Amino acid sequence: MKVGWIYKAVLIGSNGSGKSAFINYDKNSEKFFKNFRENIGLDFHIKKVKVEDDLHCQLQIWDINPAENFYFLIPSYFRGAAIFLLFFDLTDPQSFINLPVWIDIIHAFSEEVPIVLMGTNSDLKLAVPYQDIINFAHNHELIGPYFIPTKRGFKIDLLFNHFAEILTGANILSKREKNYLKHNLGKIIESSYNEKSDQRYFNLNESDSISTSNLDDLTQTNELPNSLLRLRDIMRGEVEYQGSTKIELSLEERKELAEFLTFFKYCPICNSKNHTSYLKRFYFSNDKNKIKIKQQLLELMRRSVDFKKRYYNRIIFGIPCCECFDKYCKTF
Questions:
Q1: Of 44, 116, 211, 327, which is most buried, counting CB atoms within 10 Å of its CB?
Q2: 174 and 261 assigned to the same domain
């Protein structure tokens, strides 16, 4: 059977959120680079989904969980991602509180890549209110949520088929299979409820509930791990590429950075949007060659105001995207 589509799926979430357990449920996926997790925090799997009689979709699944000293690699891990699976543990409220920061991290890379919300341990004693999860997914325009039990036996293949449907636009799931996803993995199973409790969802007393109305407030407090906040800063380009110290900018420098990001926002060849995080990392780089190039680009940016008036229909300035750079510039 031929490969008709190849897509990269990235699994992310807080430590212990169930990413690795989820992918290891699937005995049909092929695992590569088995010792990479200990070294750079990466497991790599291949999952093949049949789309047509003679074609299948190949999902390249990247399960990432690097130590802090390898955070600078995460932008490289994200590159080329077609879909993100964002995990949290239904028995761990902190993993739910961390979700807005994970979304910030993804959006620093791209705001256009779809995100699927995945809750794990759905058959244990749960600690996050169901309605809060539904509201959170709706407010952030996420796909799902889907709820994964600890026990084997659920039809994990249907989830991968669903992901392939999202990416290819093909009709892969039958009506019966879609109903299974909706009623078995799209809701919390009844055994997770506390029959002795008056609460409909998740064995919570009213005082223990985490409301989505104050979730953003919680993310602004010390409730969040410093390592996660540092990762967000790295993705936003607010710290040096491999450094841990925030760069303090003057008002004039902030203005210059904003103009730089706006000027070079789009690829001049294909007009696709450049990743802001990559532009910022280039701007803040301490590499001597990059600093020299940056100064030349800033000077070109200032002088181009006059160029645009005289040659507005002839000259286009910009920084090529990764794909166009590889295609047109890398050989030079």
A1: 116
A2: no
Asked if residue 252 has pLDDT above 90, the reply is no
DSSP helix, strand, coil percent of the chain (3-state; round to 5) = 45, 20, 35
Query: Is 243 part of a structural domain of the chain?
Result: no
Pairing of strands 30-32, 115-120: unpaired
Assigned domain for 177 exists: yes
**Contact 63/11 with Cβ under 8 angstroms?**
yes
From residue 44, alpha-carbon distances to 20, 33, 62, 244, 310 in Å are 10, 6, 5, 28, 52
In a domain, 35, yes or no: yes
| pLDDT above 90 (res 102) | yes
Residues 25-62: pLDDT tens digits?
765 555 544 545 555 677 888 888 988 888 899 999 99
Which stretches of the chain are assigned E, i.e. beta strand? 2-13, 30-32, 42-52, 55-64, 81-89, 115-120, 143-148
How sure is the predictor about 213, in pLDDT bands with cuts at 50, 70 and 90?
A: very low
Does position 243 have pLDDT exceeding 60, yes or no? no
C-alpha 192/C-alpha 158 separation (Å) is: 22
Same domain assignment for residues 256 and 301: yes
Any idea what the CATH number is for the domain that residue 33 is in?
A: 3.40.50.300
**276 and 160 within one domain:** no
* Chain segment 282-329, per-residue pLDDT in tens: 887 778 888 888 888 888 888 776 665 555 556 677 888 877 887 777
Q: Helix crossing, 276-284 with 251-263: angle to 10°?
A: 130
Q: Look up residue 306 and give its two tokens.
A: 């006059």
Residue 143 β-bridge partners: 116
Q: Are 5 and 168 in contact (CB under 8 A)?
A: yes
Total structural domains in the chain? Answer: 2
Torsion of CA 53, 58, 173, 120, to 10 degrees: 160
Q: Are residues 16 and 154 in the same domain?
A: yes
Full domain range(s) for residue 121: 2-225
